[in-house]
Amino acid sequence: MQEEALRRLQWEENVAFIQQHNLRFDAHLETYTVGMNGFIDLSWKEFQEKYLPKKTKFSRLDVRQHYKKLLNVPGKSQDPLASSTFLEPANMPEGYLLDDVDWRKKDMVTRVKDQVGPKTVTKNT
């Protein structure tokens, strides 16, 4: 029963947040609205711990080096994160842009979470 009371309290806090935020939206103080979903009875900390990936300790340099290795980009001048200079596609070295990348094989995405299963879908007629 204690868990149910905790969930109820968290639900009430989140509903109050939603109402306050949407009032701010109505007053043109916010640029988006928020609403209820399946996470309404979780705190932000609980949501982070359960559904978001753990933080990494990558610096911008680490990310640059990772992408150079990942895409086999030779040389600093061709590093897509090194400069904001626009290069016409004709100036790109052969093979710079890959036709496709399976990000799952490169361990760059997490599995899909919290999706509706086929048994929960109903036909509306």
UniProtKB/TrEMBL annotation:
Signal peptide: none annotated. It holds the Pfam family Inhibitor_I29. InterPro entries: Papain-like_cys_pep_sf, Prot_inhib_I29. SUPFAM superfamilies: Cysteine proteinases. Residues 2-47 form the Cathepsin propeptide inhibitor domain. It comes from the Eukaryota. This is Cathepsin propeptide inhibitor domain-containing protein. It comes from Protopolystoma xenopodis.
